[in-house]
Amino acid sequence: MKTKFLALLLSFGLVACGDEVLDYRNVEIVNKQIYAQGENSSFTGKVTNVPFDKVINEEVGKVLNIYARSTGDGKLLEALVIVGVNAMGNSQQKNSLLLCDIKVNNGILDGDVSCHLNGKEDTILKYKYSNGKLDGTLTLYMPTNKNGDIVKVAEAEMSNGTLNGKTKVWSARTGKQVFEITMKDGLANGTTIQNGANGKTFQQETYESGKILKTTYFNPSTGKEIGSVNQDVQGKIINGTSVTYYAFNNAGLLDEPKIIDIKEYQNSRPSGKVIQYDVETGKILSELTFKDGSPYNGLYYRREPDGRSIKNPPEEYINGETKSQIEARKRIEEAEAQRKKLEEESQIVIQACIERLKNDENYASYDIDVLESECQQELNEMSQ
């Protein structure tokens, strides 16, 4: 009997001394609890090679999204976490998925979760459960080159199953901290800090219970505050001075984001002074005014879909109309004035003709309508 029992343990990859080990291929999930296949009692020990999509949850997903949004490395993150890559190379098939080792107690997650790329030893992601709930510090690492060297890029504090405390993000390229947010019960609370890849702050946001209240903007070069806006619970700007940055390109977060424009808001619409910048040189392209959400006076440069390049030539606005619109309107007005002038001149000619015919004995018996028709015909012949 003992021999048969030992064989059963080995078939499931269990270790006789210390924690038992079970490969995910031999796992059964019953009522959200983990069992070894064919066993009646829930499993206690270590489960290996668990696909990441089987252990990710909403809170872990929030951290990954925070990293992606604050660094612009969303595609790399997706490749590592969802598809999997081998040492920063081409996307591989399922044999290179992110795999995790998890600790289980009586069928429930309880202890460390450690994830790595299949075939690699370096940990990409690690966090911890306490009696089925997230607890402790989550740490995310990322490869920095084709040799597979990794660095820490995110760290998040968790307790009681949710994000509680600070979440920090670093640039994998520069090692500088680029983002920080404080979470309470899984919701943003307090002030977030967004830096360029050089570590200099260019934007801060103030939250309360997950609702954004205010955004403050800084010059990425000098660190000087250059604007701030108040926002409603949906994040819509109410009033203030907003700043739009060009902060990300195909390689991710820029060392020093570039200012696209600075724009005044009133009653949730751009109204007031607007300054547009050349992203390449940092020089001012134009200073103009907006009114009720639209350009009103000055030169306005529209942008290409990349949000960076400008469309030439700019449109010149005068009291809410473009110069071309004004010129077109003037042409229409001039044509209408010319039409009215010709019509008035025609009426003068026709009236003179009628008076002349009235004095002609050949037309003495004709009605005025007939005389008018005769004169209109005469005018038409003269115009040809």
UniProtKB/TrEMBL annotation:
The lineage of its organism: Bacteria, Pseudomonadati, Pseudomonadota, Betaproteobacteria, Neisseriales. Residues 323-352 form a coiled coil. It comes from Neisseria subflava NJ9703. This is MORN repeat protein. It comes from the Bacteria. Keywords: Coiled coil. Gene3D superfamilies: Histone H3 K4-specific methyltransferase SET7/9 N-terminal domain.
